User: Which sequence fits this backbone?
């Protein structure tokens, strides 16, 4: 894909007032750096999968340094998708924190993302109501430390890791080291 031409066309849309802002989805730090090298208007947002088991630390730091808002999708692990699983909701560390606080694992995940300064989206009315119940409490430093120490990629790769990458494109030593 010719990102340069596509991005310039998106900048034209912004300049013409056809959109208030422009952004990207699932861009790595490298792809963002490539765009920033020529962009007249930088991306306002990068929407990526982000949750306590897929924390994307390097990408979060890159976006913060470059003024790009990181929006989290699948804060509960993308259960029900071809690449997702219930590993986030079944994580013992998160279950323990939820039990101690009298909250759901989902609320712990959303509060963690919120405290990381990340925006989480939902279009489901019931979930939006539940999401509002994360603002009258916070995670302790100890709890945040526990969550941040969860092994980032602690799963067995089956057929597909994401809708964008098949096994043939994974590094040879995938799963043998911790990824951010």
Assistant:
């Amino acid at each position: 894909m010719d990102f340069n031409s596509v991005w310039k066309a998106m900048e034209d849309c912004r300049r013409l007032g056809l959109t208030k802002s422009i952004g990207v989805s699932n861009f790595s730090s490298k792809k963002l750096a490539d765009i920033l090298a020529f962009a007249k208007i930088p991306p306002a947002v990068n929407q990526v999968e982000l949750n306590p088991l897929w924390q994307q630390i390097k990408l979060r730091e890159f976006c913060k340094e470059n003024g790009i808002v990181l929006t989290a999708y699948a804060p509960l692990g993308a259960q029900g998708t071809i690449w997702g699983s219930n590993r986030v909701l079944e994580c013992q560390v998160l279950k323990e924190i939820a039990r101690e606080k009298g909250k759901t694992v989902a609320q712990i995940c959303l509060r963690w993302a919120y405290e990381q300064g990340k925006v989480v989206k939902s279009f489901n009315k019931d979930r939006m109501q539940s999401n509002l119940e994360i603002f009258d409490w916070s995670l302790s430093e100890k709890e945040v430390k526990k969550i941040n120490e969860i092994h980032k990629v602690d799963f067995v790769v089956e057929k597909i890791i994401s809708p964008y990458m098949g096994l043939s494109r994974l590094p040879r030593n995938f799963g043998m080291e911790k990824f951010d």
